[in-house]
């Protein structure tokens, strides 16, 4: 089973 | 005052077509050196990043930095007015309420103008860290497009594996399981080439649905560059000759 990660986990809000 | 004229207007038409299924409202950043935009899809899984250099335009003038908020769906509708051979000019005044788009065909003497209303978008700008990607794969864009399309009919998810010998796209679904493997190929026929630059092997899973959306940009570039890093989103990059680059970022699927 896989879950879709979100970009927010990798990139900081600037 | 901002004004930019692109001789090959079809490129702009293709760019809009290539992003309209992913992002809805977009802030276009105008600067004296070029045009850029960055926007995420509503689920924060994919991000579009476009950079166009002023050097690629026949004429370019931007006195100051400006932000033009645009509905991409509406921009796509306006772009439909353009003939494939049209030159496209974009114009906006300081503190503009609309973006003027002019399509001109010097051969047929047809000119079309549209004032697209601008909107205010409160969008989140993400800082993308400088990443040294441990695997970079350069592959014919038509071929990558076809692989993704066909694999999607077999599975929602693709596992991309890289090593120094090959890049592998594997799926596992109700139908069965299988993989497409491409080895490093620097044959004389440039369009057949697959170039692998792998310093560290990567294995990640991605939703093919998004890759298919990104691949709409395959008409902009003969090659697609896939940049991978085990701990980072995938970058799918399309270089636009003499003008700039269109990049898509895609967050991986993570096993429980």
Main β-sheet, spatial strand arrangement of chain B: 6-2-3-4-19-18-17-11-15
- Uncertain parts of chain A: none
Shape of chain A: rod-shaped
Mean pLDDT of chain A: 88
Give the fraction of residues assigned to helices of chain A.
Answer: under 10%
Q: What's the Cα radius of gyration of chain A?
A: 10 Å
Fraction of residues in β-strands of chain A: 35-45%
Give me the secondary-structure category of chain A. mainly beta
Give the integer mean of the pLDDT values of chain B: 96
Q: Write down the Rg of chain B.
A: 19 Å
- The CA-CA distance between the termini of chain A, in Å, is 32 Å
Tell me the greatest interface.
A-B, 14 and 25 residues
| Oligomeric status | heterodimer
Largest sheet of chain B: 9 strands, antiparallel
Number of helices of chain B: 4
Structural description of this entry:
The complex is a heterodimer of chains A (14) and B (256). With 14 residues, chain A is an all-beta fold. Helices cover 0% and strands 36% of the residues of chain A. Chain A has strands at residues 2-4, 12-13. The radius of gyration of chain A is 10 Å and the shape is rod-shaped. Chain B is mainly beta. Chain B is globular and about 55 Å long. Chain B has helices spanning 9-19, 72-79, 141-152, 208-214, and strands at residues 2-6, 25-31, 34-40, 46-53, 59-62, 66-71, 87-92, 98-105, 110-117, 126-127, 135-140, 157-162, 166-172, 177-183, 194-198, 202-207, 223-228, 234-240, 244-250, 253-255. At the A-B interface, strand 1 and strand 2 of A face strand 10 and strand 20 of B. Strand 2 of chain A pairs antiparallel with strand 10 (126-127) of chain B.
